[in-house]
Amino acid sequence: MNNDSTLKALLVVGLTALFCSVVVTTTAVTLQPIQRAYQDLERNRVLVGIAGLADSAAALSDREVVSLFQELDARVVNLDTGAYDDSVSADNLDGAASATDPDASVAIPPDQDIATIGRRARRVAIYVVPRADGIERMILPVYGQGMWSTLYGFIALDADLNTIVGITFYEQAETAGIGDQILRADWQAEWTGKKLYDAEGTLRFRVSNQAVDPQSPEADYHVDAISGATVTTDAVSNLVAYWLGEHGFQPFIDSLRERTDDDVQSP
Ligand SMILES: Cc1cc2nc3c(=O)[nH]c(=O)nc-3n(C[C@H](O)[C@H](O)[C@H](O)COP(=O)(O)O)c2cc1C
Question: Which residue among 29, 38, 134, 241 has its CA within the 20 to 30 Å range from the CA of 165?
């Protein structure tokens, strides 16, 4: 075929495009499990940090993360019944897939969807730091829509399942220097010791745009919003309100807390 032929030029371009797309697709498919494993590892690094199993989770080797993760008691909670569900292992529960699978999730009515997530899984994996006579700490997954991205994190509760030990995010894509300030250690430190529920069991916690008198009883339930990033911090407030509220973990937490007035006993 003549080198100047249009047909030959089109053939070469077509074959080159086909070859490149096969290479890119094959590489993407081959690397997907590796990428997923790294994402899980980084999520588990954040998890062992907020579980209090390491002073500096960032400094842990990958092997140490895997080893410390084994110290956590991973359990499955059925949010519809508010009880543990031991019919499935937390290791076998694919949280991301369950959240979109029509059979494994429920649509959230718009008036309840304060975290703007559309659907939520019926069963969710949670993590318990065990101690001899019960629970040392409980870590619950939380997520919701921020300004530009979905914010994925964990909230850690003390043995009373009412006092916040900490909040952390392992995935978000808010604006650097603005919305991503939710990762600031000093802001996250403000959460430590705050309460979720009042004596009547009403969820009172929120991230507040208005200054709260530190001497007032309200101060126990409030964390200050980050100035200049209130869209993202409002979103954090909303996602906590959803997941710790009556359509999230609250029935489960209430049932565990009813078992004892003091710390929660072994799961
Ligand atoms: C390019 C651009 C990116 C922004 N990114 C964020 C963000 O990631 N999170 C956020 O809360 N606000 C972000 N903002 C600011 C919001 O639009 C809004 O002004 C701010 O959240 C309000 O905070 P304030 O009530 O404390 O002033 C961004 C603004 C601009 C112009």
Answer: 38
CA geometry: angle 189, 73, 165, nearest 5 deg? 15
170-210 pLDDT, tens digit each: 999 999 999 999 999 999 999 999 999 999 999 999 999 98
Question: Do 81 and 9 share a structural domain?
Answer: no
Q: How many domains does the chain have?
A: 2
Whether the model pTM is above 0.85: yes
Closest residue (by CA) to atom 13 of ligand 1? Answer: 229
- The one-letter code for the residue type at 145 is Q
Q: Give the C-alpha separation, 83 to 124, whole Å.
A: 11
Residues lining ligand 1, CB < 6 A? 147-148, 174-175, 178-179, 227-232
Domain shared by 118 and 48, yes or no: no
> What's the token pair of residue 116?
């703007």
